[in-house]
Amino acid sequence: MSVTCQRNRGLVGRIAALALAGFGLSSAASAEAAVSINGQVLGGGAPIANSTVTLWAASAGEPKALGQARTGMNGQFTLSGTDSDKDAVLYLIAKGGNAAASKADGDNPAIALITVLGSKPPERVTINEFTTIASVVTHNQFIDGTVIKGTPLQLRISAGNVPNFIDLATGGYGTAIQDGLNSSQTPTMANFATLANLLAGCTTQVSADACAKLFAAATSPGGAVPADTLAVAEAIARNPGRQADK
Description:
Elements: H1 2-31, E1 33-43, E2 46-49, E3 52-58, E4 64-70, E5 76-83, E6 89-95, E7 98-99, E8 112-118, E9 124-127, H2 129-138, E10 143-144, E11 147-148, H3 152-165, H4 180-185, H5 188-203, H6 210-217, H7 229-238
Parallel strand pairs: 1-9
Antiparallel strand pairs: 1-2, 1-5, 2-7, 3-4, 3-6, 6-8, 10-11
């Protein structure tokens, strides 16, 4: 009887351990938050078709790709993914595609645009030249190419400043940049629009050498030549006074 009871207790213990382990797995799975995003990629105010859009989660380590989609003829896309890091900041990068406003046919590999969304993205987002300038300027210390890394507090503060420049849903001007100080008493708004127009000249290929001229003007002091519009935005943010005449 004693041996039987010990065996039963051992069996019950193992069942309880398995139940607890299963509960742990279930809890871990439920902790992964589902992310679903609808948006549009624009260049020069017009749709960019066939652009590859990737959703990234930024943290202190290397960013994690959560999902990917390709834009339709109207530049729209829908993508979804899951992320287990509640402190991660989400961002979208659109690369390549055919700009409806382009003067040239076919894919433009120089297109690289970004929108930093924060930890809770809106129901609808836009990726364009405005969002690229806003996202790069606010994340200048933490972005390198398509990689964004930083502590949760650093990234949260940076992402929180993006809507001061742009409206995440429309890709137009944000509230703060349109106030009296930034719109009329300082050149902030004008400079912002000028930089976005420079990128648009490349995304829409207003001339055959539009991208080449932009890359040359944004070449770093060390001689590094940008290869796309995102690299241009980063180069200008880091060396704003370099070759400003160009």
